[in-house]
Amino acid sequence: MLVCVALLVYVADQLSKAWVVANLDERTVNPVLGELLQFVFVRNPGAAFSLASGSTWIFSIAASLVTLFIILFAHRIRSIGWAVLFGMLLGGTLGNLTDRLFREPGFGVGHVIDFIQVWGFPAIFNIADIFIVSSMGLFIILTLKGIGMDGTRQTTEPKSDGSVGTAINDEAR
């Protein structure tokens, strides 16, 4: 599941960026749904909101470490929800890392292609960013529901002996 989600996110991100580079002029507003949703092609040398644009190489290293961590940690995941979460994070991270490694101005310092602008939101972003942020939302949901990466769910339901906090296999529910 993790690999399938990661591939889907990565391919969607890279195809959308290829389309943007081939079809849109930089910094030109292209309305999709009026002012609510617009495509504006920008090359982002930094992080969100173009912060730390002089430190692109740091983001390349951080993204490489996140990717390595997910790959090494993946065999421990037994929950579909956590597999989806890490697939979303891996696909998004690889999408932006690919830009940083292989786009202008050079290896490790390339600019990320951003193009989605939503009315009232102060930044322009891309498909990878959507899935990275969404994975963090899913992280919060899974954590609040008490679902562990091994597929068990922490619950406060009392057991027959009166104790609470037992781990229940999520798939048994």
Helix-strand layout with pairing:
Elements: H1 2-23, E1 29-33, E2 37-44, H2 56-73, H3 80-102, E3 112-118, E4 124-125, H4 127-144, E5 152-154, E6 167-169
Antiparallel strand pairs: 1-2, 2-3, 3-4, 5-6
Structure characterization notes:
Belongs to the peptidase A8 family. By secondary structure, the chain is of the alpha+beta class. It has one domain (2-172). 47% of the residues lie in helices and 16% in strands. It has 4 helices and 6 strands. β1 (29-33) and β2 form a beta hairpin. α2 runs antiparallel to α3 and α3 runs antiparallel to α4. The longest helix has 23 residues, at 80-102.
Please supply descriptive tags for the structure shown above.
two-stranded antiparallel sheet, single chain, 4 helices, 173 residues, 4-stranded antiparallel β-sheet, alpha+beta
Uncertain residue ranges: none
Cα distance spanning the termini = 20 Å
* Structural classification: alpha+beta
- Would you list the SSEs in sequence order as H and E? HEEHHEEHEE
Please summarize what this structure is:
The protein has four helices and six strands. The protein is of the alpha+beta class and 173 residues long.
